User: What shape does this take?
Amino acid sequence: MKNTEFSCDYFELFGLPISYEIDLVLLEKRYQELQFKFHPDRHMRSTPQEQHLAVQYVSLINQAYIELKSTLFRARYLLSLQEKSYLNDSYTLHDSKFLMEQIELRDELAEICQLTDPCVARGELNHRVEKRYEEIKNIFKNHFSQGNFELAAETLAKMQFLDKFLTELKQLDEELENLN
Amino acid sequence: MVLLQISEPGKSPSPHLHRRAAGIDLGTTNSLVASIRSGTPEVLLDSDSQHLLPSVVYFGSISEVLVGQKAYLKSSVDPLNTLSSVKRFMGRGIKDIKKLGSQLPYDFLIPADGGMPKFKTSAGEISPVEASAEILKVLLSRAEESLGGILDGIVLTVPAYFDETQRQATKAAATLAGVKVLRLLNEPTAAAIAYGLDQDREGIIAVYDFGGGTFDVSILRLSSGVFQVLSTGGDSSLGGDDIDRAVAKWICERACLNDNLNPSLQRELLVAARQAKEVLTSSKYAEINVAGWIGSLEIEVFESLVAPLIEKTLVCCKRAVRDSGIKLTDITDIVMVGGSTKSQIVHKKVAETFNKKPLADIDPDRVVAIGAAIQADVLVGNKPEDDMLLLDVIPLSLGIETMGGLMEKIIYRNTTIPISKSQEFTTFKDGQTAMSIHVLQGERELISNCRSLARFELKKIPPLTAGSAKILVTFQVDADGLLSVSAKEMTSGIESFIEVKPSFGLKDQDIARMLQESYGNAKEDMLIRALREHQVDAGRLYEDLLVALKKDGRELLNNDEYNCLNLALVDLKDVCNDEDCRKISQQIEITSRASEEFASRRMNVSIKKALAGYNIDDLENEV
Assistant: This one.
């Protein structure tokens, strides 16, 4: 099978312009249209090779949908499309003010974990970090749209920091529930 | 083999030909089969007008195998030969089974290779897969009688929270029963279909499915015919059985019975506990008379016994809501599924948690089978114009073992399937030429807390310095939620591929042997079945190819190719109703070969069309 036929970027797949700001309603609509056409359930009477092809193609559609829908993955994906490589797993942040802020957030989280009823404090912290993530996300958007990819990459690293923090908060929720 | 069907919604690709399909709910306590008859989904009844088949199999001797009510009656008389709740053993090892309770009324045979334990019965050693196949066979023959012939395929439901090994074992049971599985469908998703299509619902649905042995919760979004599962959670060993056991334990304490009971008494206690539970769905207390003890169970006491179990389900619900990314207040409907939701306390607690009154308009026992029947009808091709599509997710993360006994996730739980994901790994020693890949499933970090699915070796890696070989591991999960894994060394191109057949599952040769044994006495049936299947396949290929040729033949094929394919088509038509199985299959083979290139060109054209469908002009108009 000629899988190479599928090679196009995720934006092209959904017929969207390459940009950090995307129309999520349209993404959803295109996603459903593509699923209706290619989902393996729609090809139950095809040959095994063709069914296999449908599975591969829909896997790609699903992956593309995940990458474009998430504000974090979309940012990373956009940078990966640039000719020059801006992504580096071991990216070192030099913004000491931001790093200080992260340390303070972690301290705060550690204190919350010590509380007998951490729910309210945890909720407040979550809200604050989510707001901060939104701010940083908008900074990424500006850098990227102005073609400042170096700065965009640094901002992405900050987004990753905050995202990881939010994930840990979620895990804390789960642990709390399991204890009760 | 048929050409890829690429048809516009509303346009049937071939003349209407009704195919026989059914949905089967293989439950822990009871099983059902449903089908679409005259356009309406219906649960099929047995000759005594019963819709529930108790999931109990009695193995008295090789010639005496009873299923259902007749088997259930044997459970206290001959407990070791009467297998019930086998679903709880599907795809499980002895370690998991020990967790189910200290006392199980069976004689187990534990295989040395750590596979699924078997039950020692008078009819020999029986695996949970074989026992399940017996239940399936009874339901299949009920459906065949009712629909007037051999089935073209079934949709078989599984708890959404079933892992890879449990799914594989369930599929193996169907293979053993000799039926084609169109799709393994998650039970809560099936229930959502039954509700969604029945009432044209739109919005966010939470399905709370508390069955005999499993608990599932799924959050789905319904919009214009798409059932998109946003998240799922649950516990594949938590169900009504546990309620029975809690009640039985309470009776034991009251009756001053010690822990070491014989299997008959264990069964009697469980039966009494279950009866009391059923009485309490509509009464304030239940009289109990068992093992010489007479007493009464008040509803308040019962509710305090089950409260911790319900609490467990509510924790799963909260996690599923969080995973779905929606707010609790966004949920428009809560659907109740499964026998255990008949207890009032369950309704009350669920209503409190979701702050909404749960729906149970469709019988919670039947709703899963009905949804499965609807999906089976679509998949078998009876509704080509249908605008229904399911997008389901995997319930548990998949990954591989990395340094230090840790699990690295490659595909996260609640990812929409089918999905394929690759990750690059490298060698950690200079000159390392082989790499062992250990595939795992679960959410925890330590591999000892995850389920081991498979191990395989990638050999002949070129000896390079540590960290310079690049090994790409690809996970592919298909639409049934089943996994295959491949690994490729990128510099040399050495490849290794494995269909994950978990060690707790049955090996292919075991299935082949069991199949042969079961067909030994039914050879004639098999031949007739095979002939009919071939005739149907040939007819189908003919129809579809004819339509495809008319539509795209002139455009995509040159004259020679076109004539050649047409000729093959004429020959195929001639043998469609032949009585010689071999002749039909030969002609199918020839025609399929001749049409391969045509099929491939059509697929490519279709994909290109889909990609070119959106240009920037459209975009501006739509925005």
User: Anything to note?
Assistant: Chain B has a mean pLDDT of 85.
